[in-house]
Amino acid sequence: MKQKVEGRVLVCDTVHDCLLEGLTSLGYEVDYQPNITLSEVDQCIENLMGIVINSRTLLPKERLENASSLRFIARLGSGMEIVDVPYAVSCGIACLSAPEGNAFSVAEQALAAMLSWMNNMIGADRLLRAGSWERERFRGRSCQDTKLGIIGYGHTGKALAQRAKALGVTVYAYDKYHQDFDGGFALKSDLSELLQRAHVVSLHLPLTEETKHYINDSFLSQLQPGAMLINTSRGSMIQLEDTLKALDEGRLGFLYCDVLPYEGDAFVQAFDDENFRRFIQHPRVSVSPHVAGWSFASYRKLAEVLLAKIQKLS
Fold first, then answer.
1. How far apart are CA 135 and CA 181, in angstroms?
2. CA-based torsion, 65, 31, 77, 212: positive or negative
3. pLDDT of 189
4. Residue 102: how many CB atoms within 10 A of its CB?
């Protein structure tokens, strides 16, 4: 039996009890502070062996320079853009994430958005609420007649492809860095071909310098006219002005965003930005508050995946 490790682990967000219990059983002193501020993190990071974070806890080099005892960073989710990973690794700090933990939930949210658009559910709902009955206007599209393009074929992209194909959707996938297309759920495609063929395009990419403003005029000009775009990745991937122009001109038929350039407290303040406000209120845009991976099942699964990875370090 491995000797139990002693050390303090700070948990900076709400997590399933199984993670707290598991860390304790591994011998860690668990400091559970789901409402901790960044200034409070700065005050205690020097004495931490591990830290469990979500998207609001940023760990740039300047903060990590004071983490002399830190041995691991565990991210509840997949996006590691909030951590200076190269610097952390150079200091011997293991950087763990859990994309497997909520991939199925994100995929199902994207699929739900696609099915809603295919059947004109949002438009029909809005018109009926306004007192208008126009049945023929909302005739839907079948799965067998729909082509889905997935950009980014990691855990979430594969999960979406598997579910969409089961419904009879033809699925194309593109990934610049990931070449594992086993499983037969998607047809491997280059980006230009995918954008020209797909009725629906879904993004499943990490936020990097390369993918910031990935959705710009050049990208949008290649879409099939009237196509739907789904973004459950990161809000900063969308260039607002270019996207608004494509929506206004009808080149982009509909956009679903679960992620936005401004989230949390910044969301309310951002309504002073005219472009952002018009984007949110556009009739061909549907939004949700970053909940695609926020299911009851993924809440536990994220904790289980991270605990297993932390246990391997012990």
1. 41
2. negative
3. 95
4. 26
231 vs 58: CA distance, rounded Å: 22
What residue ranges define each of the domains in the chain, with the CATH number in brackets? Answer: 7-97+297-313 (3.40.50.720), 102-283 (3.40.50.720)
Question: Number of helices (H) and strands (E), helices first, in the chain?
Answer: 13, 12
Identify which of 110, 80, 109 has the alpha carbon closest to the alpha carbon of residue 94: 80
Q: Which of 203, 178, 201 is nearest to 188 (CA)?
A: 178
pLDDT higher than threshold 90 for residue 48:
yes
Mean pLDDT confidence for 124-134: 94
User: Is the pTM value of this prediction over 0.90?
Assistant: yes
User: What is the residue type of 207?
Assistant: L
Comparing CA positions, the residue from 314, 296, 292 lying closest to residue 16 is: 296
For residue 80, give both structure tokens.
């590691």
> Could you tell me if 99 and 154 are in contact, meaning their C-beta atoms sit under 8 angstroms apart?
yes
Q: What is the mean pLDDT of the chain?
A: 94
* Block residue for tokens 């071909």: 193
User: Is the pLDDT confidence value at 182 over 90?
Assistant: no
Question: If we measure between CA atoms, which residue out of 26, 20, 22 comes closest to residue 7?
Answer: 26
**Using alpha carbons only, what angle is made at residue 179 by residues 217 and 99, rounded to the nearest 5 degrees?**
80
Model confidence at 4: pLDDT above 60: no
Is residue 193 packed enough to be buried (19+ CB in 10 Å), middle (13-18) or exposed (0-12)?
A: middle
296: left (phi over 0), alpha (psi -120 to 50) or beta: alpha
- Rounded average pLDDT over 212-234: 97
Helix (H) or strand (E) holding 286: strand 285-287
How far, rounded to the nearest angstrom, does the alpha carbon of residue 200 sit from its chain's CA centroid? Answer: 17
